[in-house]
Amino acid sequence: MSKLDYCFSNDYMVLRPDRAGAYELLHLLFSPKVGRNKAVDCFTSTELHSFRRRLSIFLNLLLQLFLLSLVGPLVAVLGGALEFALNLASNVLHGRMEYPDRKSASYRSITGLIDPRVDLERSITPADSRYHAALCVMASKVAYENEAFIRDVVTRRWQMEFVQFFNCWNGKHSIKDRFCTAPFAHRRTHATCLMLCVWCLLYCAEFENAYTAQAFVFCDKAADAELVVVAFRGTPALDVARWCADVDPSWYKIPRLGRAHAAYTHALGAQRNIGWPKWVEHVKGKAALDRLAGVYTFGQPRVGDAMLAMFAERNLDRPRKRHFRITYGDDPLPRLPHESSAAHFLHFGIRLHFDSLYNLKVVKELPGDGSSSSSAAEFATSRINAAWELARSAYLGYWRSAYCREGWLLMAARAAAVALPGLPFHRVQDYVNAVTLAGSNIPKDM
């Protein structure tokens, strides 16, 4: 008998750092009966005899407890103050003597201030093989901004039709950035567009009661649209609550679907004691998926097991390949969540990996993923890579393309990354550079 009736899952393991006290943590180390541990939601009969797996859960709970302890001071105070101060400085430097308004079209997120680009590189046109990927990565970056800014960029800079901005009532976990940015090529108007968006965006209020997931929809023209894009916001730079979702290895096993990361299960609307929302029944089937032109993800974490991978490939990659998973360098997000059992989380889709010179390779696994190198060696390697990226970025705009020239704030962030491990946590600007400099190597489909 389970501790909680999840209805939508026939097996699950959900970590609960809010219930993790000293006794629960020690119990994980010394007892295989994790089903009786308050810090782990699973069937009460569940036992883990592998000390390595219990140690992994123990360390993850400690990490989440540490991150959650930072939520108040870091996000509410330091994050907001830093963003406001940078916007004020930007206004002054650009001759706009105005008080920053967080809802105005001129207010930028930290992501947008670090990399202010919003337009595609001039050589990338709709006929270019990079166009879908370039439009998606830029939409993913713009998704970090407020609704007024996004509307202004879509209508004034991109000369496209803004449809709607979604600020979704979500649970403890958030859907990932870079995870579900997709252009839809069809000849329907907004009705189909909104159906597709609602399918991806309706969230439940059962798990945490907070607005934690945002996305927007736009299309190429108001009537008879041929291209519709749904772009999801990823993890903001200083949102510690979402960092917890990234590292959390919690999962649900869903009948006929497989084992899925809890963040994505919550994002699709699953609720305790209720199951799937009724709207799911109305959007089942392949009618919408048949109109997909492609799904491009940037730094996507692992989302499920082999069964889920087969489900996704069966629906996305037939009759042609349409799911492109783009990764860059040693970005840590595609290597999350860390789980000692490789069967729980793996990647799927066509893997397009860019190294620190923005050279593209189609790889089976991420370079260095699953390596047995020591923590000291990993730390040294990450510092060397950060130093190299700083040096590379100083001349990239002169060597490859003026479009990739970096401002002082981005250079300062790269300098900070040399000294501080894990920064920048997610390299949005490098994904924009990678797609821009890829030439004709990024396919629209295969």
From TrEMBL:
<feature type="transmembrane region" description="Helical">
    <location>
        <begin position="57"/>
        <end position="82"/>
    </location>
</feature>
<dbReference type="InterPro" id="IPR044819">
    <property type="entry name" value="OBL-like"/>
</dbReference>
<protein>
    <recommendedName>
        <fullName>Fungal lipase-type domain-containing protein</fullName>
    </recommendedName>
</protein>
<dbReference type="GO" id="GO:0006629">
    <property type="term" value="P:lipid metabolic process"/>
</dbReference>
<feature type="domain" description="Fungal lipase-type">
    <location>
        <begin position="290"/>
        <end position="339"/>
    </location>
</feature>
<dbReference type="InterPro" id="IPR029058">
    <property type="entry name" value="AB_hydrolase_fold"/>
</dbReference>
<dbReference type="GO" id="GO:0004806">
    <property type="term" value="F:triacylglycerol lipase activity"/>
</dbReference>
<dbReference type="Pfam" id="PF01764">
    <property type="entry name" value="Lipase_3"/>
</dbReference>
<dbReference type="InterPro" id="IPR002921">
    <property type="entry name" value="Fungal_lipase-type"/>
</dbReference>
<keyword id="KW-0472">Membrane</keyword>
<keyword id="KW-0812">Transmembrane</keyword>
<keyword id="KW-1133">Transmembrane helix</keyword>
